[in-house]
Known about the structure:
The complex is a heterotrimer of chains A (283), B (434) and C (324). By secondary structure, chain A is mainly alpha-helical. In chain A, 75% of the residues lie in helices and 0% in strands. In chain A, helix 2 (14-42) packs antiparallel against helix 14. Chain C is flat. Chain C is built from 15 helices and no strands. By secondary structure, chain C is mostly helical. At the A-C interface, helix 1, helix 2, helix 5, helix 6 and helix 7 of A face helix 1, helix 2, helix 3, helix 5 and helix 6 of C.
Amino acid sequence: xxxxxxxxxxxxxxxxxxxxYLTLAAVAFFSMLPLYYSxxxxxxxxxxxxxxxxxxxxxxxFFANVARVFDTVPFALAMVNSVLVSGSxxxxxxxxxxxxxxxxxxxxxxxxxxxxxLTVATxxxxxxxxxxxxxxxxxxxxxxxxxxxxxxxxxxxxxxVFFMTQYLSRALPTELLEAGRVDGCSTWGLFWHVVLPAAxxxxxxxxxxxxxxxxxxxxxxxxxxxxxxxxxxxxLSTLASGYVNDYxxxxxxxxxxxxxxxxxxxxxxKQIIGGIMQGAVKG
Amino acid sequence: xRKSRHRFLAPMVAVxxxxxxxxxxxxxxxxGTTADGGAVSPPAEKIKLTVGLFSDFHFAPLYEEFKKTxxxxxxxERRAQFNDHHTNLITQLTTGAGAADxxxxxxxxxxxxxxxxDKFYNLKEYGLDSRQSEYLDWKWKLGVSNDGSSxxxxxxxVGGLAMCxxxxxxxxxxxxxxxxxxxxxxxxxxxxxxxxxxxxxxxxEGAKFTDGPGEHFRAMVEQAPIGFYxxxxxxxxxTNPEVRKAFDTGVKMIDNGLSANLAAxxxxxxxxxxxxxxxxxxxxxxxxxxxxxxxxGEGTWxxxxxxxxxxxxxxxxxxxxxxxxxxxxxxELINLLTSKESQIKLFKEASALPSLPxxxxxxxxxEYVNPYFGNAPxxxxxxxxxxxxxxxxxxxxxxxxxxxxGDGLQRVDQGKQNPEEAWKQAIEDVGRxx
Amino acid sequence: MATRAPDRLAAVPxxxxxxxxxxxxxxxxxHRLDVKGSPYAYVAPFFLxxxxxxxxxxxxxxxVSLHEWTLLRDEHPFVGLENFRTLLADDYFWNATxxxxxxxxLSTVPQLLLAIWLAHLLNRPLRAQTFFRITLLLPxxxxxxxxxxxxxxxxxxDFGMINWMLSLFGVDxxxxxxxxxxxxxxxxxMIMWRWTGYNALIFLAAMQAVPRELYEAxxxxxxxxxxxxxxxxxxxxxxxxxxxxxTSTIGAMQIxxxxxxxxxxxxxxGVDRQxxxxxxxxxxxxTKLDFGYASAISWMMFVFIVLVAGVxxxxxxxxxxxxx
Lengths: 283, 434, 324
């Protein structure tokens, strides 16, 4: 930390520093705007959406609207399901991606480059049409309506493998692995004692992104789950139904559905980023 | 099968519980309520029926009624968003699994299913063809398979058509504001265009006569005896003079500056409802809700009759996908949900317009007024339109054809093409529809 | 790039030779098995899972693309390559391809430059560090309904903020959704808004692993901030740049949500198809129940993605070996 302060402290003038904060504040402002706006609308009524200019401060109906959400859909159950699915997928993706990334980045084996290329190529397959055959598969496995349909196919993905490969290829010093080998570590031992600690910052980011994308995943859960046993996004989709959209109910629901993510970001954020800050070589 | 699931679930739960520092995560999936729950139940023949809807139809009290005569039946309702509901149904029918026992299909989609009666139980086999005489003719026919062999669905509500208008803007333009006088302005669509010209001539600031010609075009086509499809369900949009005439009338609206060039349901269209950027729009019964949501103010919009006589947009059928295991009970449930008694209840509860004309004379319907729309007798206006509508063959891709030609009108409206180019391209687009 | 790593690692001699010969042999065998076998075991989970859940849909789609396959119909006559022949002669397909590439370039290039710069700004001690980093992800978790409402407030024809500002400069009533360029610009703005922070966070993770000593040395040598970014940061995180370029390219080629939302769920992407992307084109044919044609488009799209990602990779890599 001290070293870094010294680095940037001497190199950036006060003006540059101010510019940095100004830029970041502007980015933060524009990033938060729609989220803030949805909170504003979720705490008002449907007329607020039609107002021009739009309302700027929250109204007093937020809890009433939230209560309506809970009355309309099994939201608590949906939360539990989403935490279960997103949590287990994020952990599995972090683990398996780091494992495969380690192999691709630092181990030598026949067909390595070809397999890595193949991995990347699988990402390029357009996913939309996969829904029908995948659904057929789930019917065969009798997984429709269950969380397996969401968890199992997602346990590891090319995005994660490729991400960890690229990260580890630079961030994991080969000397460290050599030293481990000399100490008599097996490959697994290397993974456990050297790779995992070094991979932590990137794995944390990967876990965060995965948790987020699984949490927000919509198309597939909607097809394969039933509204009786939904995830948050499936439950939310049933809020906005009929000819006339009840936007306030929808936005109250989505805001509520975003809160757990915020919680994850806020609680883990400091730690995750703390992990990043420490740099890789500590382990 | 259930056992093996649990064996698999256990480590999964353990892992995630450990990782997230939670103590118990089982609530999500370990319960016995899976989609295919009902059939595994013990001897007493307890039956579970699932009902798949795309919004709250206010069916709940009717389920209770059904249970009085069917104490062994449990009813679970599923709701999904409108588009998702219908595309999911297509996926479920394609793969042969996952559909609810009773499924609601909206008017815009029913045509996609009537060509494939083998995917649904034939309601005739459960005696429901006895209900035919009660129904509006066109509504009944929408639920009959194209080959006429099978009855796949029974109608619930209809979406009678009217013309919503703003008295304040009409007044500024020197036009009458009373709804009967306004209705009298436009017995035909040509008369509607003429009224529009007067409105334009009055130069009301910031307001066009109507939102855009698309919905009008649709209403005109649907009033004709033959629309996009002929009686053998061939697409005849290119050759049917009625379609071209409707298109040309739409062009007239654009050419005379009647259109605000706003697509229905787009955000600026929503804003326009409140701000008064247009003075009239085609209004199916349910659009009154859309208008109210924009909070234009009480009495800002009023409701007159639609030009050309009758019309309908929307309305629903209930169908039984062949995957269901209890067609007899499900058919009985449909019978109850669509009965006279139920439909009048649903009108009172949820303003769902009945599809049984006998109910249109019921005071609850005929005397129903809506204070938000200047006490317009909307019960009468909308049912008159529904009653006046004649049956028309609706083919599987009617929605796609409508969109192709409607887009053509919008291209004219946006000044991208002249009417001939737009028509030519629209007809080419229709030709691609198989 | 980092290819030196694996060769060295495998060349490290086996553990110290101790004990009797047989045990040594056994250990040697175990070690050989470990070195030879472990890599395959480590990459196996991905490939097993892909074979189970990815391969079948892929093959199925290919099979469907060779048929006249209408959903809900039970007969699917085999038509060979007919769908592909129709596709190559289909103006709307090429229109969608053009739109996809145009929106892709307009959104991806500025997005990645901005993301690197943002990551660079955040890769230093700052007050409210956590706050700034977390806000990067917010656009990605915000409800699409809110996004649509906000962006239509921005790009509205009659009451939009941007048009209001333009009107101050004497430009009146731009109908953003009607023109080709205007709609592409608006959609690209949406894409950038949603994904810049996401990519910045990925860059940031990689930047954190760059040894601090390099910067210290450079500072002593008097290198400026920008020089350090160009000379140290970017070369050091090049594998991650390759990663982001490839995944963003793939993402841009498959873009669906933003044009769909921008057009209020108009699957033709405007009345003149002015912003219909390839994914929307697939979706349109799918809703027309033409599963065979939609599958053929999917496969063509796959080919395009491979081509574009390949070209981008070559550009990014600039003649240095290996994916990593």
